[in-house]
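ok trying this again, last paste got cut off
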Amino acid sequence: MATIDLIVLGILKKEPMSAYDIQKLVEYRKISKWVKISTTSIYKKAIQLEEKGLIRGEIVKEGKMPEKAIYSLTEAGEAEFERLMFEISAKPINIFLDFNAVIVNLDSLPIEKQKSCIAEIQENVSVLKSYLEDNIREKENTPSIPETGMAVLRQQYVLVEAIQEWISSLNII
């Protein structure tokens, strides 16, 4: 749920908008392809975040259109956004790549804090790579380890190397 919170808070950090507009932006950017988020959960999430005092909705009516709530971040929402940025950037890397929620929102932080988030991600990638190297070394000549298991370990290692190369290409570091 923290990832969904960060996506919604990050979108609203850039500009106030309705839950419908947030949902459309999530669909347009295909965010659900690289972060665990369901576009149908956006409306519920907006209500939850408002109940927690992280966002505030202002009812507006434009012309003959029905009334709608336009959401914006509160001070508590700003603090929660930053907390989630660091929490997710410090998470161990998994196949869902939760740190992409941080990357997409990096330009909403000052450069020093952007660098700090990236450094956390880099450290976790290094830890994972070291673990995979040790695991491959221990298991590659063990007949009881299925080849499919080794294939997954090698796949993870290739992904980690690709992620390291990609992080090095970012203009932030």
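PB: full thing came through this time. The helical segments are 2-14, 19-28, 41-51, 75-89, 100-105, 111-139, 147-169.
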